[in-house]
Specification:
Chain lengths: 305, 238
């Protein structure tokens, strides 16, 4: 069943896209990841112009993070003050990011830049996931090793503008979460992702936040940053395809429910290795298209896809 | 003034031919508009007609001119990036050619060019590599079609051509022209306008996104917020 997507200006099989939504939704339900970092490359693989894939995926992540953030909100797992500082940085970063995106698109380099960002981050995240899970697996078999102290005070925490974050039980420089917000905002604009895969580890290891409130707080920030990206992409580039986004949202909502059920029944560490391998495979596929000599050296269109 | 002269010439031609009871060329198109709707995956139109004796038929369907950027990739530090670009301001967005014989047997290069037949008649800003690439890529997307000696004439009288339009067909005014050649001379031609438009939700969404992008952006965000909230409520564990 082919559907014509007005912004992508092409027709694609609706069931295929719905299935991709379900598949990535299952992964996000199982692992609590947003899934944007897998969905954007998949959309590009099926032929959606990269600029449309990125902007539309940001729109989908808005929906995905709202339902997640609400659940964490009800359990009181959101540090609003920390979230707002992260958000301030996120808005600055994502706004800058969209303007960089628009500029690169006019130059015809946006496709390559999107690919390089994905190769870099999928490569790093995938490798970390695999090694980390294998290590945790080993530790589980050999529990004699001491656990690491959760919060270590590092020099970054001593920067100016110190602020008290009661919910996180931290008294650290606000520049640090602000800076993390800026960085993740740029990624969000250029990759169409929420950026949880960077923000969550940064909040745990750099800020030293309690793990229980990290996910909720990051989702809180992601809602507004991806909303900002969606809005600015619509205004600057007209690349947000609402119909495509709705189809993906519908699929991923159902997938996420299935994923939560599977996730509760299956064992964690092996699954994380699996997710890490999927991430690496997608990264490798993107890298391959960058490196291999193309059959056709010429391309058409403003985006140069 | 010129149009008036052409009109007089045309009317006198028709009157004259009706006296001998056969115009050299009569043709029609099965439809004069193509609507791009949600389930649009390309479409076909039938162009048919008759001629009054042996001759060669050339059918040309030309879409609106579209600005196109052609880029050439080059290798930088091991990866392929877009290199220098050429901008074609007025390349036809769609071009369909079908003929009853190979063009070189139909008429001289100059005659064909005078009647805007064939890629050689394109007045493009750049030649060489980039021009060839533009045509090759558009052909691979089925936006340019060049099918010579596919039009079959029945008893040297009747002909039909199946025109196919891919899902990525550009919107705008089109012109379908049938030419009749005899012994290398242009005898007659028939032209009909054709319109490709986005209709329904597609047109509304596309136009809205481009003319009212601020409101479109806000709506996109609100829809996503509502969808996410709804999903959260529906699947909330009691």
């Amino acid at each position: 069943m082919d559907i014509y997507f007005p912004i992508a200006e092409m027709s694609l099989n609706a069931l295929l896209l719905f299935g991709m939504g379900v598949g990535v939704g299952v992964l996000s339900g199982m692992f609590g990841v947003g899934g944007g970092f897998l969905m954007t490359p998949l959309l590009i693989f099926v032929g959606i112009p990269p600029a449309v894939a990125v902007a539309t995926e940001a729109n989908q992540v808005v929906a995905a993070s709202v339902s997640g953030a609400l659940a964490h909100w009800r359990r009181g797992n959101v540090d609003i003050k920390m979230g707002l500082v992260l958000l301030l940085g996120g808005l600055l970063g994502s706004t800058t990011g969209v303007f960089i995106f628009t500029w690169l698109r006019q130059l015809g380099h946006i496709d390559v830049v999107i690919s390089i960002f994905f190769v870099t981050f999928l490569g790093i995240i995938g490798s970390l996931m695999v090694t980390e899970s294998v290590r945790a697996w080993m530790r589980a078999r050999n529990p004699s090793k001491p656990r690491v102290k959760l919060h270590r005070h590092i020099w970054l925490h001593g920067l100016p503008f110190k602020m008290r974050f009661r919910h996180s039980k931290l008294y650290i420089s606000a520049l640090l979460p602000f800076g993390i917000g800026v960085f993740v905002g740029i990624l969000s604009a250029i990759m169409g992702v929420g950026g949880g895969f960077v923000m969550v580890p940064a909040m745990i290891y750099l800020l030293g936040m309690p793990t229980s409130i990290v996910i909720g707080t990051s989702l809180f920030q992601i809602i507004f940053v991806t909303a900002n990206v969606t809005f600015l992409q619509s205004v600057n580039n007209q690349t947000v395809d609402i119909m495509l986004a709705l189809l993906l949202i519908f699929g991923s909502v159902i997938g996420a429910q299935l994923g939560t059920i599977f996730g509760a029944k299956l064992r964690g560490e092996q699954l994380r290795v699996l997710l890490g391998l999927i991430v690496l495979a997608v990264g490798f596929k993107v890298a391959w298209t960058l490196v291999v000599t193309p059959l056709e050296l010429f391309t058409l269109g403003a985006g140069g896809s | 003034m010129l149009q008036f002269l052409v009109y007089l010439f045309f009317v006198s031609g028709v009157l004259h031919s009706s006296q001998i009871n056969a115009s050299p060329l009569v043709a029609d198109l099965s439809d004069t508009k193509i609507d791009i709707t949600t389930d649009f995956s390309g479409t076909r139109l039938l162009l048919f007609g008759s001629i009054n004796g042996p001759g060669d038929i050339v059918v040309v369907v030309r879409g609106p001119d579209i600005r196109e950027v052609v880029r050439k990739k080059r290798r930088v530090g091991g990866i392929w990036v877009n290199g220098p670009a050429r901008i074609f301001e007025n390349a036809p967005g769609f071009y369909y050619l079908a003929s009853s014989r190979t063009l070189k047997d139909v008429a001289s290069v100059q005659t064909l060019r005078d009647h805007l037949i064939g890629y050689d008649s394109f007045e493009l800003l750049h030649s060489g590599d980039y021009r060839d690439a533009l045509i090759r890529l558009r052909e691979s997307q089925a936006l340019y079609v060049n099918q010579q000696s596919v039009v079959k004439l029945i008893n040297d009288r009747l002909f039909r051509v199946d025109l196919s339009f891919p899902s990525s067909v550009p919107t705008g005014p089109y012109r379908a022209v049938v030419h009749l050649f005899r012994d290398g001379n242009h005898i007659s031609s028939y032209a009909k306008q054709l319109h490709v438009t986005k209709v329904g939700v597609e047109a509304a969404v596309f136009n809205f996104a481009h003319t009212n992008s601020v409101v479109y952006g806000i709506i996109a965000v609100v829809i996503a917020l509502l969808a996410g909230w709804l999903a959260g409520v529906v699947f909330r564990r009691s």
